[in-house]
Design goal:
Layout lengths: L1 H15 L20 H5 L5 E7 L1 H6 L7 E8 L5 E10 L3 H5 L6 E4 L2 H6 L7 E5 L6 H19 L8 E10 L5 E9 L2 H8 L2 E2 L13 H14 L12 E6 L2 E6 L40 H19 L6 H16 L14
């Protein structure tokens, strides 16, 4: 059944895409390392891909951990047609059960296939999907969360790389084609390999003195900038932890509850006395605020870059660009008056 629709769909997305294919700059420290499938997918603009699987079943049975045989096709940055047999499964917690249109998914490549193609072993990649039934709102949420990831990656390389996707979902049972924006997130094991970090065996209860505080200050101020209170070091919620040069580095992800993104389904975190998604609260170590000068200076230097990334991000509509830029402006205007939680909560 899948093969029946394969050729027509490939032709559809190849000839309907006017994307300019460009290679992404790779850190010098990675020269000589094997490319990953993520590197193959990376380019400067959005990448058109096709996923052929039982789309309706994964939507209807999102609570299941069932893996669905899938064909993934795309044209890489070299102009070569890539054709992969992979598995797709639903993932996540909140969005998995609260996204009426499509749950977030994970792409599972086969290590043997990656090895055969001369690529590195990293095989698990999260896809942030369109989630909502309203196409314009769904698109805006995906694009604004994608921007948040790009902002953070311009602050530190200890961050997840992302690639914007224009996804053709082809239902293998009905042949129905849906096209939506999404983005793929770098495998955490690949991130660790890229920066030379090791796996954190026990992320709960890491002593403060063993954390890379300069990196943690960047994370905490970034989360404050985008208005995200949906994270916790103590609970290891929406953060990953890795060991780098003898210190633990905390890496954030999942920004859809941030005030900058303003997802319609997001909930206000009343644990910290917040009454609106656009309110900000600083959830880093309070004592770090006394020595935040260098980090604030770095954020000020990035102000123009954030503005340009937003202004020239063509997929995002003008009204949503204005919302993002207004929110960023309020951060810089009040950078010396950082708000702490109004309720005493263990962070």
């Amino acid at each position: 059944m899948i093969q029946k629709y394969f050729l027509s769909v490939v032709i559809l997305f190849v000839f309907s895409s006017n994307v300019e294919l460009k290679a992404e700059i790779v850190f010098d420290k990675n020269m000589g390392k094997k490319e990953s499938i993520f590197d193959i997918m990376c380019q400067s603009n959005d990448l058109a891909i096709t996923l052929i699987f039982n789309v309706q079943e994964i939507i209807d049975d999102r609570k299941s951990d069932k893996k669905y045989p899938t064909i993934l096709t795309f044209i890489d940055k070299r102009g070569v047609l890539q054709n992969w047999k992979i598995d797709v499964e639903a993932r996540g917690v909140f969005r998995r059960y609260n996204c009426p249109e499509m749950p977030p998914i994970k792409l599972n490549f086969k290590k043997s296939d990656l090895k055969e193609k001369g690529l590195s072993k990293f095989d698990d990649y999260k896809i942030v999907t369109h989630c909502l039934e309203d196409s314009e709102s769904a698109k805006a949420v995906v694009l604004k969360e994608y921007l948040a990831y790009k902002y953070y990656s311009s602050i530190t390389e200890n961050s997840f790389r992302v690639q914007l996707l224009k996804i053709n979902y082809v239902d293998s049972k009905t042949g129905i084609i849906r096209q939506h924006y999404g983005f793929i997130i770098e495998d955490f094991a690949l991130l660790r390999d890229r920066v030379g970090a090791q796996k954190c065996k026990n992320p709960l209860g890491i002593p403060k003195e063993e954390i890379n505080r300069e990196e943690y200050k960047k994370l905490a101020l970034f989360q404050y900038m985008i208005g995200n209170s949906d994270w916790s070091l103590r609970q290891v919620r929406n953060v990953k932890i890795m060991l780098l040069n003898g210190k633990y580095v905390v890496v954030p992800y999942d920004f859809d509850f941030a005030g900058l993104v303003l997802a319609p389904y997001a909930r206000v975190n009343s644990d910290y006395g917040l009454t609106s998604l656009r309110e900000r609260v600083y959830l880093g170590f309070e004592e770090d605020l006394e020595d935040m000068g260098a980090v604030k200076k770095q954020f000020r230097r990035r102000k123009g870059r954030f503005k340009r990334k937003t202004k020239y991000f063509s997929p995002l509509s003008k009204i949503h660009k204005k919302s993002v830029l207004t929110y960023l402006k309020s951060f810089y205007q009040n950078l010396e008056q950082i708000q702490l939680p109004s309720k005493k909560t263990e962070l």
